[in-house]
Amino acid sequence: MKNLKKEVQAVTKEIKALTRKTEAMAKKVAKLEKAQPAAKAKPKPKAKTAKKAPAKKKAPAKKKAAKLTATDQVVNIIKRSKKGADVPTLIKKSGLADKTIRNILFRAGKQGKIKRAGRGVYMGA
Predict the structure, then answer these.
(1) pLDDT tens for residues 62-114?
(2) What is residue 73's DSSP assignment?
(3) How far apart are CA 104 and CA 82, in angstroms?
(4) Contact in structure between 75 and 113 (CB atoms under 8 Å)
(5) C-alpha dihedral over 112, 117, 120, 125, to 10 degrees?
(6) How far is it, in rounded angstroms, from Cα 112 to Cα 125?
(7) Closest Cα to residue 81, out of 89, 70, 91?
(8) 112: phi > 0 → left, psi -120 to 50 → alpha, else beta; which?
(9) Which terminus in the chain has less CB density within 10 A, N or C?
(10) Sequence-ordered strand ranges (E) for the chain
(11) pTM for the predicted model, two decimal places
(12) Three-state SS for 57?
């Protein structure tokens, strides 16, 4: 029950943050719209009635892979290791700072994503 309450609070906090960001972006857009004068539309000359070539189909847009967060990156490294991973290994493989790794390990342990296999050794849950 406590975990559910914490998760709901976390979601609420994220929603509020997104709302603030959205409002800020809306203000910027409104400011830009006011700054740019409305362009007059030029009437297009009528083209002669001729057969048009069939339109070329566009290739589907390639989706960019979403960047992993630092937490996801560390948890993936831990899950890939069979015997578990220690902090120096995580620092070497992820390129993150020692303090960052330790904060991620604490948070991921609280969330149940990883478990301690021994002193300084972490395994995927």
Answers:
(1) 766 678 888 999 999 999 988 889 999 999 998 999 999 999 999 999 999 99
(2) H
(3) 20
(4) yes
(5) -20
(6) 7
(7) 89
(8) left
(9) N
(10) 85-86, 114-118, 121-124
(11) 0.47
(12) coil
